[in-house]
Design goal:
single chain; 214 residues; alpha/beta; Rossmann fold; 2 domains; ten-stranded mixed sheet; elongated
Length: 214
């Protein structure tokens, strides 16, 4: 099954970088105002969804039936648009989801909401928020992840549960094996890659893991 790629309405600066992330066969979902970035990149979304309050009308009416399926939601709804995009990707069988344009923007509440929304989807597969500087993902319980970057890139673990415990790690400046971290503390921020790759395991708890280019 191919991957789903969500374009959201945060900030995308380097269009070429984001265009290079796309693969043939990706299911492209334009999440409300994220459709602007699709247009700027010359990418035709397979699905456009949201309440369309942040999408210029000329882009909305340019979506062609048979090429782009439009799914409209009322402005008064219980979930942010990114969460609706993830739900739609899951309905279509996509467990690997790449989310673009979910960082930054003027709405700090929406950025934090996007980040925390990752915690609602832990049923297999991989969901990653990414831009040219950062990537973020949710880890829960007995989970493992491999990170790829460059020596000196920052790795930060943000506990969401009361306690987070780590298993074996490799490729980090400060090894994390057998440690406990607690919600609200900052000991697990600004670790570093020692090379191009690192691995980390959680044995208990829930956390957001962020890889930040130096």
């Amino acid at each position: 099954m191919s991957r789903a790629v969500l374009f959201c309405n945060g900030e995308i600066h380097d269009l070429d970088y984001h265009r290079r992330l796309l693969r043939d066969g990706d299911l492209i979902i334009a999440v409300d105002g994220g459709g602007r970035y699709c247009m700027e990149m010359g990418v035709v979304p397979d699905v456009a969804l949201g309440d369309f309050d942040s999408l210029p009308r000329d882009i909305l009416v340019s979506y062609e039936p048979g090429k782009t399926e439009c799914i409209s939601f009322p402005a008064d709804k219980d979930y942010i648009d990114m969460a609706l995009g993830i739900e739609e990707a899951r309905k279509r069988g996509r467990k690997e989801i790449l989310i673009l344009g979910a960082f930054g923007g003027r709405r700090v509440d929406m950025f934090l909401g996007n980040l925390l929304a990752l915690a609602a989807y832990d049923g297999g597969g991989e969901i990653v928020m990414k831009n040219e500087w950062s990537e973020a993902r949710f880890l829960k319980g007995r989970s493992a992840v491999t990170l790829r970057g460059a020596a000196g890139d920052y790795v930060s673990l943000l506990p969401l549960s009361e306690t987070v415990k780590t298993g074996h790690s490799e490729g980090l400046k400060y090894p994390l094996e057998g440690l406990s971290f607690y919600r609200g503390e900052t000991r697990s921020i600004s670790n570093e890659l020692t090379g191009n790759e690192a691995s980390l395991k959680l044995t208990e708890g829930e956390a957001i893991l962020i890889l930040q280019k130096r």
